[in-house]
Design goal:
alpha/beta; six-stranded mixed beta sheet; four-stranded antiparallel beta sheet; binds adenosine-5'-triphosphate
Length: about 240
């Protein structure tokens, strides 16, 4: 079998808030159709890494995407290129309906009706709950449903790479499982995933490989099996 192409390659990434450096020489890659977990304790820099990729935080270092260097830091440009960030804290617009929230994800191509309908159908197939609740205000959804909506909106933006920031946070195990089942299906839909998680147990059930970030540096990496055998070590990292 042909080795899968690398879709996103990060080399020596530094990131800063003002003068404060938070990421130090982070290197990682994601192949096409891969789900890669990014693990690490509070404050490790996981969210900052996603924000640096999205162009929301000042960065230095090299990012290659689809074989080309991703330069500049315009969020819109990154979205257009197909790198879609689903932020932590499931920021849905509570005063808008589920459907209107989803449509916001399609803002770059909202006048292409056929394409919009196709994407909507895809999201509703993955999350039947959203279809049932499409005319409901997002603010009336449960926490798990809001997380589904946040991911659904990301999917509406036609991602090639989906950056998911702690989708399991604060949700009951059964809901987490439902969401992870969908995440696990994304690679077969042509979407590569970078899954940020504090819960290694959750992430390692869906990811093929994982990186551990601590103090803004990658301190360990390997295929999921490598980490399964090292759950003790992970506990040390993750507290
Ligand atoms: N806007 C900001 N301004 C200054 N420092 C920040 C800002 N946001 C985050 N930081 C700092 O950057 C470091 C990394 O934070 P980040 O949010 O990336 O961590 P994280 O791994 O996502 O943590 P968590 O698991 O708690 O979400 C922390 O020390 C944090 O205090
Ligand atoms: Mg975070």
């Amino acid at each position: 079998m042909e080795p899968r192409r690398t879709i996103l390659q990060i080399d020596g990434l530094n990131a800063f808030y003002g003068d404060v450096q938070v990421l130090f020489g982070v290197s990682l890659h994601i192949r096409e159709g891969e789900c890669v977990a990014l693990l690490g304790p509070n404050g490790a820099g996981k969210t900052t890494l996603l924000r640096a990729l999205s162009g929301l935080v000042r960065r230095r270092g090299r990012v290659d995407y689809c074989g080309q260097e991703l330069t500049g830091t315009g969020y819109d440009k990154v979205v257009r290129a197909g790198i879609i960030h689903v932020p932590e804290g499931r920021e849905v617009f509570s005063g808008l309906t589920v459907l209107d929230n989803l449509m916001l994800g399609a803002y770059l191509y909202h006048n292409q009706r056929g394409e919009v309908e196709m994407r909507k159908a895809q999201v509703f197939t993955l999350f039947p709950r959203l279809k049932e609740r499409q005319h409901q205000y997002a603010g009336t959804l449960s926490g798990g449903e809001q997380q589904m909506l946040a991911i659904g909106r990301g999917l509406m933006a036609r991602p090639k790479v989906l950056l998911l920031d702690e989708p399991s946070l604060g949700l009951a195990p059964v809901v987490v499982q439902a969401i992870m089942d969908v995440v696990a299906r994304l690679p077969t839909e042509g979407i590569s995933v970078l899954l940020v998680e504090q819960s290694a147990n959750v992430a390692l059930t869906v990811a093929q490989r994982a990186y551990v970030l601590n103090g803004g540096k990658v301190v360990d990496e390997g295929p999921t099996d490598y980490f399964r055998d090292r759950s003790r070590l992970l506990e040390k990292y993750l507290g």
